[in-house]
Amino acid sequence: MLKKRNDIEAILHPETVAIYGASPKGGLGNLLVQGLIELEFPKIYPIHPRESEIVGLKAYPNLKSINNQIDLIIVAVNPKNVKQIIEDAVEKGVKGVVLFTAGFREVGEEGKQLEDEVVSIAKKGGIRIIGPNCMGIYCPESKLSFFPAMPKEKGNITFISQSGSLSTLICLNAMLRGLNFSKIISVGNCADLGVNDFLEYSGTDEDTKIIGFYLEGLKNGRKFVELAKEISKIKPIIVWKVGKTKAGMKAATSHTGSLCGDFTVWDNMFEQAGILKVDNLDQLIEHFGLFQNPILPKGNKVAVISGPGGPAVSCADACELNGLVLPELTDITKQKIQKIIPEFGTSVKNPIDLGLQVSFLPNIENSVIEHVGQDENIDMLMVYLSILKKDQVKGVIKIQDKIKKPIALITAFDVNISTKQVGFQNYFIPLKPKRVPKYLRMMFEKGISIHANEQYAARALANLLKYSKFLKKN
After folding, report:
1. Which end of the chain is more exposed for a tag (fewer CB within 10 A), N or C?
2. What are the φ/ψ torsions at residue 38 (nearest 5 degrees)?
3. Same domain assignment for residues 74 and 149
4. Of 187, 149, 152, nearest to 167 (Cα)?
5. CA gap 373, 6 in Å, rounded
6. Strands (E), 243-318
7. What is the rounded distance in angstroms from the CA atom of residue 160 to the CA atom of residue 199?
8. How many whole angstroms from its chain centre is CA 111?
9. Could you give the number of structural domains in the chain?
10. What are the tens digits of pLDDT across the range 298-340?
């Protein structure tokens, strides 16, 4: 049974924030302040022992001098000063602390001892800690941010990360793909609040529809599986787990002090809990789009449609390597396709090769997608496009209303690229980069996903099928 985590809710929705580490000289503390200012957080209190003003805000020498209740403090100072700050926070009645500061468990025994002392003081005083060695919280609804230029728009994804920099990178990259976040939580060393706490919170959070993770290691794998198995029944959980190699495991230990563990064990855990695996940042973002409004497949039969012949072969490989099969189309479907595609340099077998010239004829391409999508032998479609074109997008969306099957589109050129950069402006009329997020959102809402290559697309369709089977079983 999932618990509603009111302790975390209070930290994610503070009314007042004090920040240690901002300075007239600039630095990381100032980036934290600037992020809050840009999201228009109402009550920000920079703390500095000597300055009276920082980045246009009145500064205070310490917590005691602030004549207001402080809900959350963000700490970006030398680790030797942290213990005193936590003691002051206890005295002030602070609810939560984000420890941006590094130099604890991840640096060795002395750092571990300091981390344990800090957590002990906080727990006795009723304070919860995020971190140390983390970026903290991005929550557009409560106007919290840990970096400038973060979007003000609220989405439906919660991302929990053991990497601070990836917390920023995923947000800004996803924004270009029409995706926004409800929350991003950079957890760092997880000295107090950790992965399982935020997983449980996200499971009951009404603003979270999709949960994503960047994971290096876990302190309590059994608890994670128990929570994930329950939550996966109502929300997809997508995990990028690193530390597969000796080099990766060593890097994770020095990064956040995490112990990565045996990957066979991780695979078994994920299988039990209905967790979907990805291997990098791009796949994670693509899966966030895939699960915006997914159409769950009935089976593993895929039709591959491509203009260029080489990618058609590569798509077939990618499908089979991911446990998907390419069945024969019905004779009726083949006859319909043969009537509209060029006679030479094409094939109506699966994979369906439309010939390179069809790249310049999106109406033919869309007609084939419709015929194939209505084929009773087909559960899912993988379509390889040269470049995403406006008319084609509108056409595929209309087709999806008729066929209602998962469609994974692969674009040879990145969707945010301008054809002027590659000299195609006289041949293709693509989406303008500034319009891309809008059109991608339209496609995601119809169960159409976008992928950088056929390997990513095949993994996405396979994960969609895996999740469908998990839901039926549970």
Report:
1. N
2. -65, -35
3. no
4. 187
5. 46
6. 276-278, 302-306
7. 8
8. 31
9. 3
10. 999 999 999 878 899 999 999 999 999 999 999 999 999 999 9
